[in-house]
């Protein structure tokens, strides 16, 4: 009687099993864990499967994957051996905060965070300062490209806008802590004698609209064709399903549409496209709750102006930003409308005509 031979594993399956054991037993360092999890996800393992097999929660998986990518950038772009050795075994949460920077800025900023042994909360603010600084087409007078000067510039700029001496002094002290070049240091020290206040340039008001009526939210219907049509042609049109809250319709060809009212700003747009997001990605002090929004971008309007928000390439994804000065990065389009969903108290109630009539 012939024995049934076990099905041999593919090289990918064998590698995946080895990585799962490594993760389960926490062998190696967190950089290796991030690379292992990235490999597993690329080869068909979803985060929940990995969690059940290894104990790494999905949020941890994302942190070590992104952190390991930042670490690879640091190796590639010449972070100091001391910085690499320090972060190889700890602080994946710190490197995670550098994900939005260019590879070169990741390396230099990581050196700075190692020098001062900063935690993730502080590094989050520093990464934003370095990112904003990188948009300048020309460096501000007296400040170098070093991330320490990027922080110093942010502190110098904000300090000039403060009339409160305590807050002004705190910002100057922060800038002097991280400043790199002597010329930037002199710029900060001048504020200790010059108490004039520079007016802050206010960001433009976000162009929010709220869908209020049924007329503002029309339905999207498929077009069969032009008469005469056969029964077979009529039946061939697939049933469409609307996705709330904006009644988005997906087509079998993987193209989706959404119907918006004929607002003038949309009629004037040359190449408008829609992106779906959440309202909390934009600063809004009057926001009571987080809700889905439609972001309408005119891809034809790529010339910077101070009165609008723009979309740009942020490395691995698109992002939105108001730029106080012309950035040195290509813009992908202007944000022209943010659309909130219609408020509905009881959608099923409004479907019954007799209830509406009464």
Automatic annotation (TrEMBL):
**Coiled coil (residue ranges):** none
Instruction: Outline the segment boundaries, as ranges, of region: C-terminal beta-sheet.
Output: 218-344
Query: Do you know which InterPro entries this protein is assigned to?
Result: RAF1, Raf1_C, Raf1_cyn, Raf1_HTH, Raf1_N
List, alphabetically, the GO terms of the cellular component aspect: cytoplasm
Q: Which domain of life is it from?
A: Bacteria
Free-text note on domains in this protein's UniProt record: Has 3 domains, the N-terminal alpha-helical domain, an extended flexible linker and the C-terminal beta-sheet domain. The 2 C-terminal beta-sheet domains are swapped and pack against each other to form the dimer interface.
What the protein does comes down to:
A major RuBisCO chaperone. Acts after GroEL-GroES chaperonin to fold and/or assemble the large subunit of RuBisCO (ccbL, rbcL). Cooperates with RbcX in RbcL folding, plays the major role in assembly of dimers into RbcL(8)-Raf1(8) intermediate complexes. RbcS replaces Raf1, leading to holoenzyme formation.
Q: What is this protein called?
A: RuBisCO accumulation factor 1
Recorded source organism is: Cuspidothrix issatschenkoi CHARLIE-1
Q: Organism classification, top ranks?
A: Bacteria, Bacillati, Cyanobacteriota, Cyanophyceae, Nostocales
Gene name linked to the record: raf1
């Amino acid at each position: 009687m012939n024995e049934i031979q076990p099905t041999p594993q593919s090289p990918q399956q064998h590698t995946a099993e080895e990585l799962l054991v490594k993760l389960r037993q926490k062998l190696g360092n967190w950089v290796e864990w991030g690379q292992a999890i990235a490999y597993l996800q690329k080869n068909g393992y979803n985060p929940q499967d990995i969690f059940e097999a290894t104990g790494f929660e999905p949020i941890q998986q994302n942190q070590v994957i992104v952190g390991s990518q930042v670490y690879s950038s640091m190796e590639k772009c010449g972070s100091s051996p001391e910085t690499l050795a320090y972060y190889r075994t700890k602080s994946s949460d710190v490197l995670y905060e550098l994900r939005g920077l260019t590879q070169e800025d990741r390396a230099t900023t990581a050196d700075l965070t190692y020098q001062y042994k900063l935690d993730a909360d502080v590094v989050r603010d520093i990464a934003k300062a370095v990112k904003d600084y990188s948009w300048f087409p020309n460096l501000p007078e007296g400040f170098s490209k070093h991330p320490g000067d990027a922080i110093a510039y942010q502190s110098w700029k904000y300090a000039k806008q403060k009339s409160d001496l305590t807050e002004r002094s705190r910002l100057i002290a922060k800038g002097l802590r991280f400043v790199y070049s002597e010329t930037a240091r002199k710029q900060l020290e001048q504020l200790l004698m010059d108490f004039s206040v520079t007016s802050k340039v206010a960001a433009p008001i976000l162009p929010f609209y709220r869908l209020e009526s049924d007329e503002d939210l029309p339905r999207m219907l498929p077009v069969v064709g032009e008469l005469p049509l056969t029964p077979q042609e009529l039946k061939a049109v697939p049933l469409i399903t609307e996705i709330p809250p904006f009644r988005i319709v997906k087509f079998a060809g993987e193209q989706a549409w959404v119907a918006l009212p004929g607002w003038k700003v949309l009629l004037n747009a040359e190449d408008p496209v829609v992106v779906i997001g959440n309202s909390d990605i934009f600063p809004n002090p009057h926001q009571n709750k987080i809700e889905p929004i439609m972001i309408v971008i005119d891809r034809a309007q790529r010339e910077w102006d101070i009165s609008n928000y723009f979309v740009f390439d942020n490395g691995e994804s698109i992002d939105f930003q108001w730029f106080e000065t012309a950035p040195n990065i290509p813009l992908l389009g202007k944000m022209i409308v943010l659309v909130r969903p219609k408020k509905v108290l009881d959608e099923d109630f409004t479907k019954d005509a007799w209830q509406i009539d009464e």
